[in-house]
UniProtKB/TrEMBL annotation:
<dbReference type="InterPro" id="IPR018485">
    <property type="entry name" value="FGGY_C"/>
</dbReference>
<dbReference type="InterPro" id="IPR018483">
    <property type="entry name" value="Carb_kinase_FGGY_CS"/>
</dbReference>
<dbReference type="GO" id="GO:0042732">
    <property type="term" value="P:D-xylose metabolic process"/>
</dbReference>
<dbReference type="GO" id="GO:0005998">
    <property type="term" value="P:xylulose catabolic process"/>
</dbReference>
<feature type="domain" description="Carbohydrate kinase FGGY C-terminal">
    <location>
        <begin position="255"/>
        <end position="440"/>
    </location>
</feature>
<dbReference type="Pfam" id="PF02782">
    <property type="entry name" value="FGGY_C"/>
</dbReference>
<protein>
    <recommendedName>
        <fullName>Xylulose kinase</fullName>
        <ecNumber>2.7.1.17</ecNumber>
    </recommendedName>
</protein>
<keyword id="KW-0067">ATP-binding</keyword>
<keyword id="KW-0547">Nucleotide-binding</keyword>
<feature type="domain" description="Carbohydrate kinase FGGY N-terminal">
    <location>
        <begin position="3"/>
        <end position="245"/>
    </location>
</feature>
<dbReference type="InterPro" id="IPR018484">
    <property type="entry name" value="FGGY_N"/>
</dbReference>
<comment type="function">
    <text>Catalyzes the phosphorylation of D-xylulose to D-xylulose 5-phosphate.</text>
</comment>
<dbReference type="Pfam" id="PF00370">
    <property type="entry name" value="FGGY_N"/>
</dbReference>
<comment type="similarity">
    <text>Belongs to the FGGY kinase family.</text>
</comment>
<feature type="site" description="Important for activity">
    <location>
        <position position="8"/>
    </location>
</feature>
<keyword id="KW-0808">Transferase</keyword>
<feature type="active site" description="Proton acceptor">
    <location>
        <position position="238"/>
    </location>
</feature>
Length: 498
């Protein structure tokens, strides 16, 4: 039997899976790493932690499945998008990586928008938002000039890990599309944007397709992990790989992915769709394809936060006990998941979360239900934008934390007003990375053929019309909270650093 390995470099940890040629996940391992949040709005990580924990996860797979160690034919990667890793001429890391959910770059986003105006959207198909990579580069240029002078290359998180494992430097189009430096149409780094901000094209890594073979493991790394003669493939951005792992490979297919952030993603054949409301358009990890996407910054993170406050010593299953018995509307309670600001549809780094309607009769279970509903309402704002743009959405594949609870899956069907599909063996972006390796190794002629073998439905959740009617009304109330509280949160902003 032959095997491939899929590695997903997430925000809170790395996950590695071993998959055989029939699509069976034989083994998985996860390793955590810490966030560095020294100031309000700052979110960084030490790239060395990624490397150490990735190698540890790969070693664990080989230790638990020693028979397979000589039969791992390919490895590929998925990774958190937008994060800025800076290297000097000796390929040493210059500072901690600035992550996708870091919001310090509002001023730089304003500068980018004012300088490039409509050219930014024309070239990159996206607006300037704090999460993207270019604003981070400009922040370093402005606030850390000594480091800026030493920059010889920037990389995205998964690409740095792959570089440390192989010695080869590349990035793929799906991850490059999230930097705000890529000419989407030309599939090249934008000389115009680089020149506008005095950024040398030299620091931009070589571009390759996600299925490209970029090398093999360095000898010392291969020995440490316990495998050899294994091909390494470029891989893709986490959302692009998540789409592959959920079979979002043709028009009409839509994905709901709930991890730390939440994503509504829809397949696109080309890059010419007109977008609104801060929807994004990026390259897919499938060659010559694209996807549009809306993002909720604090999706699963909102549930993590709730658990840390209300049930720090309980499991998520225990936290959700009783939620199914609470009627839609959480006994008159609404939650907005703006814990670190919001991206779609508002692109507001100052807005913060709200619990609206609290009274003395509310219990923990009502708050938990309201949090789940609020996360789903936020994702539904992206769904509404897709539908306004004329997209037909008949079914949604749900992956991530939101796919592990039948109550939450039914809630998604009721709020999205469409069938929601749960997968039989949902491994998210890690599976998408493994599928890229499987196709790269020649096991299958296409990702579609691989998906037929690797991906299977487990259940379908249909909307409950009574719940649909209730949620339709509550969603309109939810949408009014942003405009009603925006000025209040702006007034509170000066006090948050205290």
């Amino acid at each position: 039997m032959k095997y491939v390995m899929g590695i997903d470099l997430g925000t809170s940890g790395v996950k590695a899976i071993l998959v055989d040629e029939n699509g069976k996940v034989c083994c998985e391992a996860s390793k955590p790493y810490r966030l560095i949040q020294d100031k309000p709005g700052y979110c960084e990580q030490n790239p060395e932690d990624w490397v150490e924990q990735t190698i540890a996860a790969m070693k664990e797979l080989m230790t638990r499945q020693p028979v397979q160690r000589l039969h791992v034919e390919g490895i590929s990667f998925s990774g958190q998008m937008h994060g800025l890793v800076l290297l000097d001429e000796f390929r040493q890391v210059l500072r901690p990586a600035i992550l996708w959910n870091d919001t310090r770059t509002t001023a730089q986003c304003t500068t980018i928008t004012e300088k490039l105006r409509d050219r930014l959207q024309k070239i990159t198909k996206n607006h300037a938002l704090e999460g993207f990579t270019l604003p981070k580069l400009l922040w370093v240029k402005e606030h850390e000039p000594d480091i800026d002078q030493k920059i010889d290359m920037f990389l995205l998180p998964k690409d740095y890990v792959r570089f440390r494992l192989t010695g080869a430097i590349h990035t793929d189009y799906s991850d490059a599309a999230g930097t705000l430096l890529l000419d989407i149409s030309g599939q090249t780094w934008s000389q115009e944007i680089c020149q506008a901000f005095d950024i040398s094209l030299h620091i931009c890594p070589p571009l390759v397709s996600s299925e490209t073979e970029v090398g093999t493991l360095l000898p010392q790394v291969a020995r440490e992990i316990g495998i050899k003669d294994t091909k390494v493939f470029a891989g893709g951005a986490d959302n692009a790989c998540g789409a592959i792992g959920a079979g979002i490979l043709s028009s009409g297919h839509t994905l709901c992915s709930i991890g730390t952030s939440g994503v509504i993603l829809s397949y696109e054949e080309n890059h010419n769709r007109e977008l609104q409301g801060n929807l994004h358009l990026f390259h897919h990890a499938k060659k010559d394809a694209f996807y549009t996407m809306g993002v909720t910054l604090s999706a699963g993170y909102s549930l993590d936060w709730t658990k840390s406050l209300l049930a720090p010593n309980e499991s998520f299953k225990e936290l959700l006990d009783g939620v199914a018995d609470v009627a839609p509307g959480a006994n008159g309670l609404l939650f907005t998941p703006y814990l670190v600001g919001e991206r779609t549809p508002y692109a507001d780094s100052i807005i913060r979360g709200s619990l609206i309607g609290l009274d003395s009769r509310h219990e923990r279970v009502h708050i938990v239900r309201a949090v789940l509903e609020g996360i789903t309402f936020s994702l539904n704002e992206s769904m509404a934008l897709f539908r306004q743009a004329g997209k037909e959405i008949d079914t949604i594949v749900s992956i991530g934390g939101g796919a592990r609870s039948k109550t939450w899956l039914q809630m998604q069907a009721d709020i999205f007003q469409t069938e929601v599909i749960q997968l039989e063996n949902e491994q998210g972006p890690a599976l998408g990375a493994a599928m890229l390796a499987a196709v790269g190794c020649g096991w299958y002629q296409s990702l579609e053929a691989c998906a037929d073998q690797f991906i299977h439905q487990a259940a379908v959740f249909a909307p409950n019309q009574q719940h649909v009617d209730v949620y339709d009304h509550l969603f309109r109330l939810y949408q009014s909270i942003y405009t009603s509280t925006r000025d209040i949160h702006a007034g509170l902003e000066p006090y948050r650093s205290i």
